[in-house]
Amino acid sequence: MSSSSPKVIHRKDPARIAIDWDDGHSTSYTAAELRRLCPCANCVSETTGRRMLDPSSVSDDLEQQDLRLVGNYAIALRFSDGHETGIFPFPYLRKNDPQGT
After folding, report:
1. Is residue 68 classed exposed, middle or buried when 0-12, 13-18 and 19+ CB atoms within 10 A define those classes?
2. How far apart (Å, rounded) are the C-alpha atoms in residues 77 and 63?
3. What are phi and psi of 14, to 5 degrees?
4. First-to-last CA distance in the chain?
5. Cα(39)–Cα(75) distance, rounded to whole angstroms?
6. Segments making up each domain of the chain, as ranges
7. What angle do CA 10, 12, 16 make, to 5 degrees?
8. What value does the CA radius of gyration of the chain take, rounded to a whole number of Å?
9. Model pTM?
């Protein structure tokens, strides 16, 4: 079973975030990957769970302009397209690791 507790979160540059997990695994996300994963109510229907955001509408050169912790369970980001309502819980980020878990 994989861990969902980050040890360190790195804002490597405006286009990439890396997380070192407490079990030694590391994950790197581009800002575009995170934006496409956004779980907020504008991006995912709260009633059906259907993704409302068209992933192809997110530019590959998107940047993240702000990263902040939400309690001890998630991060929130502001993206260069103006979107900033998503909260990304740590287990969700680990489950959606683009490199696999």
Report:
1. exposed
2. 10
3. -65, -15
4. 9
5. 12
6. 6-95
7. 100
8. 13
9. 0.90
| pLDDT tens per residue across span 45-95 | 999 999 999 999 999 999 999 999 999 999 999 999 999 999 999 999 999
**Distance between CA atoms of residues 1 and 24, nearest Å:** 13
Q: How far apart are CA 35 and CA 19, in angstroms?
A: 16
SS (H, E, C) the chain: CCCCCEEEEEEEECCEEEEEECCCCEEEEEHHHHHHHCCCCCCECCCCCCECCCHHHCCCCCCEEEEEEECCCEEEEEECCCCCCCEEEHHHHHHCCCCCC
CATH number, span 6-95: 3.30.2020.30
